[in-house]
Amino acid sequence: MEAFFQALLGGLVLGLIYIAIAVGLTIIFGTLRLVNFAHGAFYAIGAYVGLVIAQHIGIGWAFIAAPVAVALFAILLDRLVLRSFYDKEPTSQLLVTFGIALVVEESLRLIFGATTQQYAMPAALQGSVTLGPITYPAYRLLFAGGVILMLVLVWLFIEKTNYGLIVRAGIRDRVMVQLLGGNIRLASSIVFALGAAIAGLVGAAATPIYGIDPATGFAFLVPSFVVVVVGGLGSFWGAVLGGLLIGELQSLTNLAYAPASSVIIYLCMALVLLFRPQGLLGESEVIRQS
Amino acid sequence: MTSTSTEAPGVSKGGSLLASDVRFAVLTAVGIALFPFLLHPFGGYSTLATQIAIVSIASIGFNLLLGYAGTLSYGHAMFYGGGGYIAAILMLRAMPQHPNLWLAVIGATLATAVLAILIGALTVRLYGIYFALLTLAFAQMVYFIVEQAKDWTNGDDGLQSLPNALLPLGAWNLDLTTPLPSLALGPFGNLNELRLWYVFAGICLLLVLLLARTLTRSQFGEILGAIRENEQRSTLIGFNAPAYRLAAFAISGALTGLAGALRALFDGSVPIDSIGIDRSGSFVIYTVVGGVQTLFGPVAGTAVIMFLENVLSAKTPAWRLIEGLIFVGVIVFLPRGLSTVLKQQRDKNPRAIFVRSLRPSNEEPDPLLKPSGEGRRSGPMSIIETFKLGKLFGHFAAVRDVDFRVDPGELRAVIGPNGAGKTTFFNLLSGTIAPTSGTMNYKGRDVSRLSGTARVHLGIAKAFQTASLYPDQTVRQNCRLAALARVQGPFRLQVFRRSTRLDEVDAIAERAMGRLDLLGVADVRAGDLSHGDKKRLDIAIALATQPQILLLDEPVAGMSKDEARKTESLIRKLSTEMTVLVIEHDMEMVMGISDSITVLHQGTILATGTPAEIQANPRVQEAYLGGHSEAELAHG
Amino acid sequence: MKQTLSRGRFVAGTAGAAALTFGGGPYVIAAPTKEITIGLNVPQSGPYAEQGQDQLRAYHLAIDEVNAKGGIMGMKVKWTEGDDQTKPGVATENAQRMIERDGAVMITGGSSTGTAVAVSGLCQQKNTIFMAALTHGDETTNQNCHKHTFRRYNDAYMSAQSLARTLVTKYGTGKWFHITADYAWGHSVYENLTAVVEPKGAKTIKNVLTPFPGTKDFSPMLQQAQAAKPDVLVLTEFGADMVTCLNQAAQFGLTKSTKILVPLVDEYMAKGTKDNFDNVVSTAPFYWKYHAAKYPGAKKFVDAFQKRYGFPPSNGAETAYADIYIYKMAVEKAGSIDPAKVIAVLESTKFQFTKEQEWYRKEDHQGVNSCLVLEGIPESQRGPGGFEYAKVLEVHEGDKVVAPIGSLACKMEPA
User: Distance between CA atoms of C321 and C325, rounded to whole angstroms?
Assistant: First the structure.
């Protein structure tokens, strides 16, 4: 029983990590209709920037430098390459972002080497916390709390700001976004940079837990994509629900039969795509009246 | 799948084996024969040449799906690795004493075809990223099963040391590992570096290239291309798009499985990574780099990338970065791949390379092409009759409780203010969307559950508010496609014959163009037409399906006055031969041509009557003028 | 790079020998040349990249040393490299390329049992010697043994025997919890360990398999271990996976509450886990500090390695280094690079380079040499660079811990 509760808690934390990456993916898709396979690369760049800063300056600065650097990289990428793909077929977007992910991964491999690297978390957070029968690493709990805080901020951004209006409108009605005209360029850049910055921050913050190697970005991208699809592409709460579901499913499968833990999320995604292709909380296509 | 009773006339233009086919076969054979020697000075070697030939077969199969059907699979390793494992298991279990290469290869290819049909049946309704992720999910499940079935597959270690298969050929029993005779060729190496395997793999590649060439030029390839370019239109001229994509998926999977089997037998082993996610990704890279929608693109891409991997990887650790940069460069600058550098870019407008639809299809599952049972009996005269027809979007009732009836030969206008539900109502009639309540009868038969495709074949055709065309095809070809659907039925796996041999199709298309006054622009690319011609072409396409009832959604919207009057008279002429339903805001036209008018308001019928009755109806005036300006009325 | 005649199928041959065709193989030994090529096939990416790179350093060192002293039987040694990415399919493709295009007469490398087994099968087919370097799973020389494959590195059976002999008095009884990489090597280690400790009273609570490769988060497995409160936690992971796993175990407090066993370790894994490796018990076939102090051959190797690269070699590097010298010895003694003759020498010769006198068993081609049981020490005591990572608890002689020949499933091909 104790193991079961431990697994539940572990699934929650794992789910929050997926959500943290997935939320950027989903708002970028919702606003720009861009299927971004390079999102894992943002995570990896954030992690490596964090690594370098943490080793040379300090871990606090790492958490600031990583999202900023990734946001700048994302804006550059957006202007140079992706902009011309906004209106193309999703398959083209998939291919070009897949290619960018490949280039980033290989560049990181040449710069930093193929080995897993890690930087230590602050000494105060290295221990574990005991909550009733459950002992859990302090850093992971703090990380989970940070993700929740960040989700609240993102939610406020979407619901309460003018830029958020564009995100909301984009998710619900593409045409309305286009009618907003001039603002859209700036707004889409901001949303893209924000989504990327979140992934970069998560990369920096998660590296003390998981370490980083050039392939880690892709390793987290795939489950995050699963989360977004299960929850509903473009839906904020869908990403949250999908993340919790996938995290728990994976954690509980590990308890039952660990080798199946990697395949269970694909099974889950396949079932969702077959029976509710728009995702659990996805809106089916809005048909405009004439 | 059934086809229509109309058989294609057996008229063939030219012989079955054209001179150009022979020339193609010979030139390709020469190319394949020279390939290993051309590779030699650059550090290639015979095994690499054989592996490239084999893997190219998989890439060609992959391109049939990505390039011609327009959908990206991220799970083709399940067929490649699957073919390899099946061939290996057949060798080890079924014929350990007398390994027969034919049996292993054919068995594996058939088995992967079955696997592809099963998985395709579940996946082909999705597009874009959804299709890619669903195929990835299935591939990961297949990987898991292979990894777990250790007794059969040896788990992570893969199957090793396969017996050397012999190739029974008439009186001979060929050992493919036999080297060719010695013949020094200077800088190009020596003939005896090659083993018989290369000859066999090369012949397989040649046959697959011939098959792919025939297939993509056949009627099947033509229809697949049409579906890729405009699925909405293709469905509503009567092609069963999922069935065509399933066929493409099955052929693609089988070819990939064939390659996997050949590779396993050539290598003498099957590693677990042959079925992994990176393998799936490699086919994407090979095909995109070489060139989607080209015959030799996948072969060229496979050769270039495999060569880089094998030769460059020993020289620089940056080889994968180089590979990635090539890949991105090709997508950004050469969307149709490296092979388009060699020949002139025929196409100035490389827009729709892949399927455009993003959302998964939200149509109801396609029922069999049988009516789900008799609906309520209606008057003998009606052609279309609806009972309490309704459509909810979430909580919004776009159409509710509509009882509607049209008699044969009638020209009925459907009018109403913006948001009245007119287009939704047409979509319900044409079968593009399924009703949430009520039923619809067509000639007394309940067709409520039938797909749009099935309804086209019963005689219901539609022209869209925004013309839905094949912009990269000529006007003639646009009409031919619709005629082809009429003649050949919703699905026919005609992979060997071209549709150009069907005179009946040409005749129907010609008539349709003539009726809409489009013969003068018959050979113009549809995307280059004027707005008015585009709208009329859309009607001509609908007409080429030989409908009994024609649904026209705002046929003159956006046209100049002259064009509108011209189109109006063409519609009037059409209405003498068939029933016509027309949504229109142009009141002059509505009042001028309609036999009767139905007014929709807030999803329900407000009134039905003759033009004079409608004009006099106070409720109609109220609905139209209540809060709406004349300007709004003019534009839908 | 200058391309010579030896490209393609024409492979460098024995000095002064006439052209001859090897039985079964497609190779033709052409006129005498003064070069031979060796294929170095190691992971340079993926979880075992660090191990692969260190092996590569040792190969380069050994080959340069050999060439400086006149090469192998007067022939200059060239090498060709490949990144096997720890994937069997890629490893086989690399080896194929090395043999056919580059004319490699011997393939060496490893870091995973999966790749070793795959390459072994290919080399058998291609009539090419395979000196498997860092591969620890039993099957390389047991279930999947081949005539052309020689493995000097300790196998899982030897590690398990050694661990059990040293530890059974300390940890033999009590509850054991296993976290095991789900592939050939992991299974092999798990089976060997349980087979020796269970009869002595250890109780296996659970064995959780982790997907390989690609597991980044071990927390679900570690949580189960935490809940089970075992006396001994066995982490059968290697390379970067072991580093991640042990570091995450420490986050769960497991390094403090449980005795941790890592069946096989090397310098890089110990470095990566820092203080979390303190008190962890493991095995290794070679430890530079211990062997350099004891054997002149080892000292010479460690000093040369240190001089060239600035840090000491890992145990994988040592086996890579020795493999080159063993191959040289065998060719020179055979007077030929003919695989059949080289195999005959390797099967029957005792030799000594960096460890005690050692040999390969004729029956399975497993190297018989000692196995060290080590215990990790805190980072503060490890000296500069952190390469001095453990103290030696006990050294077990190879022939005492190697699997008895009668128990083998190996069916060696006839000569």
Answer: 7
